Amino acid sequence: MITMKKDIGYIAMGVVLAAFTLTGCSRFEEDDLFDESAAQRITSFNKDLQSRLCEQSEDDKYGWVMQYYVAGNEDLDFEGFNLFARFYDNGKVKMASNHRFLRNGNANKYTESTSVYEVLREEGPVLAFNSWNDILTVFVDPVDPASAPSNIVKDGEGMGGDQNLTFQGYDGDNILFHGQRHFGAVRFVPCDRPWETYISDTETTKNYITNSTITSYYVISGTDTLYFKDLRSGIITYCERVNDPLFPSIINCVFTPTGFCLQHENKIGDTKFREFNLNPDKTCLLSEDGKVQVSATWDTYIVNARNTVWNFSQDDFTDEQKSLLEQIDAEFKKFNKDYALSQVGLGRSSGSGAVKGLVLTFTAKGKSNTAGISLATSRPAFGQMQISYTGDEKMDRNLTNICNKSDAEAVIRQFITTLTGTYDIVPDNYFLPTGCDLHSVDGNNNYTLK
After folding, report:
1. Which residues of 290-317 are buried (b: 16+ CB within 10 A; e: fewer)?
2. CA–CA distance, 95 with 82 (Å, rounded to integer)
């Protein structure tokens, strides 16, 4: 089951709490079962909320990270934003961020702004930011397109943000709110480091786990597997398959120094998840309870090798394989005495009639070129590669020309048979590999690709 982005069922908790506080208190006050009136109890609760907000602003603490979401509109969707806040008893709040909608030339630059706040007594506690704050109010401002980027304006709704936040509840040390008007989620998390350090550490983690080369991720729980797409944008497509998904859902997230957190809780099968953190060896991200794993599709990237060639370390070849490569090199020289076989790899050859399979790189007078022959590589299981060969795969134009004037084809096909089998893949980086080790599960030789 995929939970849709606009699901705001979690609001029910706050509604029930407010209803209980208002309706229940009237009866209890009439029966004189409590020492305080309903109004006094609400006032006490608001004071407790303000006290908790201010406690995190003491000298030995770093205030709050506000994981802030806007509602967007039918044409636009937005990622979540990390805003920082320190609340003071005198009604002042200092905020900071480096988000992309800061104005006056500050977009993507660390910026601080001070304004005022109060905790209102309405149907439930409401945290109200009562004056303009450069960090927050840009999400709320229904400005004219001439005064701000046109893509944040829609029928006077701006981005669909809120600066009055309705209290939802406590979640351990965290405090949960939602926008009073547009219902975007806002999660207050105690900040554990200086704000600029938090931003820097978050950017480092984001750049480690996301990139422009591998843009899809496995979401795995037991035998269930779904996918995230476009995690880097902060606007994730959650789907049952990467290509042409049937039932995609949009999920928004914010990045953290250790991973990322989704706007709402979601599910894979019956297992719930919301926040993911890098595991100790940085091979994947795990949900809060460790039951859901998010892994980049690094194995598919290696197995498919669509736009690259993974070259074998020739030190791994057996004596038989080295002998065959020497014969191939000799046959290439029959075609052109200046040719020298320099590398052997898996991937896509270049030039006319390019094929995906075994790629032979040769040099001539300092210039490199490739010749290729088809070879099937598949993924029998997560983190595995199977190399298969039937014996009649086609060659690209370069290799065809060489083989027409030499006996290279027979030797090349013999060499391929020594590579076939199933291998466990161990990459040098689990989010964007630049090389990997292949460990045979069939008892064949092991290889290093780079």
Report:
1. eebbbbbbbbbbbbbbeebbbbbeeeeb
2. 11
User: In the prediction, which pLDDT does 123 show?
Assistant: 76
What are the tokens at 1? 């089951």
User: 83, 135 in Cβ contact below 8 A?
Assistant: yes
> 35: pLDDT confidence band, cut at 50, 70 and 90?
low
Which residues does residue 177 pair with via DSSP β-bridges, in sequence order?
A: 167, 186
Q: How confident is the model at residue 5 (pLDDT cuts 50, 70, 90)?
A: very low
3-state secondary structure of 236: strand
Q: Kindly list the distances between the CA atom of residue 25 and the CA atoms of 30, 119, 124, 168, in Å, as whole numbers in the listed order.
A: 8, 20, 13, 19
**pLDDT confidence bin for 155, thresholds 50/70/90:** low
Q: Which residues contact 306 (CB under 8 A, 6 or more apart)?
A: 348, 356
Question: Tokens for 327?
Answer: 């014969």
Task: Report the C-alpha gap between 220 and 232 in whole angstroms.
Answer: 19
Q: State residue 410 phi and psi, 5-degree precision.
A: -60, -40
Cβ-proximal residues to 249 (8 Å cutoff; 6+ apart), any chain: 2, 3, 4, 5, 237, 238, 239
Return left, alpha or beta for 111; rule: phi > 0 is left, psi -120 to 50 is alpha, else beta.
beta
- Residue 218 three-state SS: strand
- Which tokens is 238 given? 């959650």
The Cα–Cα gap between 323 and 3 comes to 58
At 60, the pLDDT band (50, 70, 90 cuts) reads: confident
Contacts of 86 (CB under 8 A, 6+ apart): 56, 57, 63, 64, 93, 94
Helix ranges, 281-396 (H): 298-304, 319-335
Residue 160 to residue 81: CA distance in whole angstroms: 13
Helix, strand, coil percentages in the chain from 3-state DSSP, rounded to 5: 25, 35, 40
From the list 381, 189, 191, 214, the residue with the least C-alpha distance to 288 is 189
Q: How many CA atoms within 13 Å lie on the side-chain side of 291?
A: 11
Give how far the C-alpha of residue 166 lies from the chain's centroid of Cα atoms, to the nearest Å. Answer: 29
* Cβ-contact 252, 69 below 8 angstroms: yes
Do residues 232 and 212 make contact, with C-beta atoms less than 8 angstroms apart?
yes
Length of the chain counted residue by residue: 450
- What one-character-per-residue DSSP string does 387-406 give? EE--S---B-HHHHHHHHTS
CA 377 to CA 287: how far, in whole Å?
32
